[in-house]
Amino acid sequence: MGEKDIEQQHEDQLKGESAWSGVGRYLLHRAKPHLPPWVGMGAVGLAGGGANFLWEDSAWAGVGLTLSAGALTAATWWAGRGTSAQRRLHSAITVAAGAAWFTGAALSGPLTGPLPDLYLMGGTVTALSWNVRMVMRRNPDAVGESSDKGLLEKVGLARTKLGVAKVEANKVTVPYALPAGEATNADVSKSLPRIASALDVPTTAVRYRPDPDSARKGELVIVPNDMLKEIIWYPGPSAPGGSIAEPLVIGVYDDGRELRLTLPQAIHLLVMGVTGSGKTEAAMDVMVEVLTRRDVVVWLSDPKRGQDLGEAFGACDWVVTTQDGAAVMIEAFKAVIPARQLWLGQHSYRSWEPAAATRQDDAAHTCREDGTACGCPGMAYLIGWFEEAANTLRAVDDDAFTGIAQEARSAGASLVVSMQRASGYQISTDTRASLPSALCMGVDERDAGFALPSEVLDAGANPGAWGNKRPGYCYLVTAGIDEELWSTPSRTFRNNPVTLEWASREFAPVRMGVDEVTATAAATVAGQLYTDRQGPATAPATEGGPQRAAGTDDDDMTNGEPLVDPEDEEINPEADLPETTDAPMFGAPAGTTPDDPKAAMEEILRHFEANGQMVIQTKDVMEHCDRIGRSRPWVAAELGRLGREGRLVPAGGHKYRIVPALTSA
């Protein structure tokens, strides 16, 4: 019963019937709670008189009664160990006094010597002391104060007032108010481990929610039982064929709520966790959900070469498995951002939304100056997934993701950066600040401060307590969910590669291909490393399958696909073929000769491009020098020239990235 209910009951009693009969009933009703001490006093007196008839002047009875009195007092003290110190002491004194008087009365008689006076005075005082204690339990001036002063005093929060507790299944929420001018919410944060110790629960079971409008008020949340111990297997796609803008359901919170991640709201996601913390299965949960959506394209960098996510390779638009390939993918990602932003702006989108992924048949989103619908193919949401990103960052600048993270939001693109240790040694603070969302599994305690925001750790989040002992346990910090859930433990679904392979295969007809804008921008940076990639069909597609080209007739379609590629529609199949030429798509300008030093270097670069090697070192070029009779100084001079002309750009260390150069038309 709440404190307000108690006060209301007291008022109702005072305003009850005023007749003599009503007064009598009221007095009797009010006296009943105070009768037990007096009844006990009378029972001790009668028992002492009766025992005198049995054991008067008996030495053996004296020994037995004395030992019994001591044992009863000790038992009372032991039984009161779970109560307050005052109640324990009061109970022990009462039992000791009653037992001592009973022993004396049984041996010498209740009316002998001072026993009658001790009975009347001592018994009355003892009974009244319990009555006073009962009366003092009702204290209107202390409404809202702690119901367990002892516990709060132990943890350094004395004089804290607690409100009415809200009790739910496996969850207790208690409002608190710290004494004004004496403590702040920061003191509550520091006391959380001690509160957990006092309640004998894990440290992650106690957290708090500060009141944003007060420095001394908030709520304590206690979850006594760990409901995440039970493994829950991935139940299947949460929105099969839906948009990537819909939440991805990847697990459950400790109160049973779904763990939801919405990537367009999260913008960029940092996934971290030590070996054995369940990071791989969490990645599978996210990847499976992504691959079941219709309007998303994935670029995947996996230095582990498919050891964990290999079943998803066939569903990704572009996959690289080397450090150099990852470096090129990063540069390509940078290049597609302005191209995608331009397309979205031309079609009147302030940011990417699901409508941008469909054919642009709405006049409100047209790129034509006359205001009529343009019919342009849609643009899918782009995810750049960098698995084991620490491996990638060792090969490139540790600020490699910073520019992407700061600009990609408006371009309909997200980064997923996965690594075991998110620390200042692995990733720059600027890049970490640019990754606003985090899925944090168990980590080393020293890395917790870099993994999660300080306010989340202050609220009770403690991923360092898990390490690799609680696989799948995690905290999710992201936009789109209540901030109170940021410090709430959760657990991802158990998953396996079979599910990943199933999603890749079964939802292939649903997923869009990469749009022409993104593909063209990527090819200008990655060249043949991108154009010769192994991945799904790259023709743009929408919800029902491949995107139909503008101007095609139904007669030219077979199973929803055009019989002729759009770029080949103007070709006359009966015309003579043109003369052959050796000019590559990406190569040297027209007019060079094999004897030209520039042509010699271009020949070497074309060799690398043809093999998909877009990042080279000086030693790679030197391997071709003997064949063409060139020296190391010549190589150094040519690399310098190509760097000045923009054909090569530094890629970290002694490496250079080849920038494809389109041939003249």
Write the layout of secondary structure elements.
Blueprint: H1 3-14, H2 20-31, H3 35-55, H4 59-79, H5 85-108, H6 115-136, H7 149-154, E1 161-162, E2 166-168, E3 171-177, H8 185-199, E4 206-210, E5 217-222, E6 248-253, E7 258-261, H9 263-266, E8 269-272, H10 279-291, E9 296-301, E10 318-320, H11 323-346, E11 381-386, H12 389-395, H13 402-407, E12 413-419, H14 429-433, E13 437-440, H15 448-451, H16 454-458, E14 473-477, E15 490-492, H17 497-506, H18 516-526, H19 528-531, E16 541-542, E17 545-546, E18 557-558, E19 561-562, H20 597-610, E20 615-617, H21 618-622, H22 625-628, H23 632-645, E21 648-650, E22 655-658
Parallel strand pairs: 8-12, 8-13, 9-10, 9-11, 11-12
Antiparallel strand pairs: 1-3, 2-3, 3-5, 4-5, 6-7, 6-15, 13-14, 14-15, 16-17, 18-19, 20-22, 21-22
Helix pairs in contact: 3-5, 3-6, 4-5, 5-6, 10-17, 11-12, 11-18
CATH topology of the largest domain: Rossmann fold
User: End-to-end distance, in Å?
Assistant: 86 Å
| Main sheet strand line-up | 7-6-15-14-13-8-12-11-9-10
CATH class of the largest domain: Alpha Beta
What would the average pLDDT be, to the nearest integer?
A: 78
Strand content: 5-15%
Structural descriptors:
single chain, 665 residues, alpha+beta, Threonyl-tRNA Synthetase, Chain A, domain 2, Rossmann fold, ten-stranded mixed β-sheet, 23 helices
